[in-house]
């Protein structure tokens, strides 16, 4: 350890362990850069054969292609909240809390949206209670986009995914999609043994990454349903 101040008084055991950890953290950073480069280099993805209908929070009709604005890409968080659910998934709500805060920055580079199959009125109420100010929220209920994306793998259940759409060639394509289970479209339906398996999107959520810095880690903490 070469850091001044308090680090000069660290025990030899701490200094050695921290130096070893720093090497692993650098390798993780480098691997993350390699994965990001491979993601950017993906060939053109599958094309949507139609322009899915959506509904804004005021129930006005929109189309997926209309969400891009002046951007060639659209980043979407597909939230777990169906029409017959009393509340949205608390993990998804926490995820969107963070996405809402950074949306003004993201909009300088890409279009952004949150989607769920619950109706516009129910989504509007959740957005109001959770004070989402920036991220546009849409209902997929007018059409079958949720089902076409394969997010209803099991009756009464939904899967959260992040989808990146690309219209750089004038056609709407899926450039990249990631799920909590890191599942492949050709995989058999995956039933995790516990919540610890569903961490495929955690690196995209600041809450989990910050909790993982703590000596006690994230433990069995689970986000509450309370609003901010």
Structure description:
By secondary structure, the chain is an alpha/beta fold. It folds into 2 domains: 5-40; 53-185 and 192-211, Glutaredoxin (3-Layer(aba) Sandwich), CATH 3.40.30.10. Helices cover 29% and strands 15% of the residues. It has 5 helices and 7 strands, in the order H-E-E-E-H-E-H-E-H-E-E-H. The chain is globular, with a radius of gyration of 20 Å. The model is unreliable at 192-196 (pLDDT under 50).
Q: Any idea what the CATH architecture of the largest domain is?
A: 3-Layer(aba) Sandwich
Strand order of the largest sheet: 2-1-5-4-3-6-7
CATH topology of the largest domain: Glutaredoxin
Distance between the termini: 40 Å
User: Could you give me the name of the CATH homologous superfamily of the largest domain?
Assistant: Glutaredoxin
Task: Jot down its keywords.
single chain; 228 residues; alpha/beta; Glutaredoxin; 2 domains; seven-stranded mixed sheet; 5 helices; 7 strands; globular; DUF899_thioredox
Short summary of the structure?
This protein is 29% helix and 15% strand. With 228 residues, the protein is α/β, with parallel strands linked by helices.
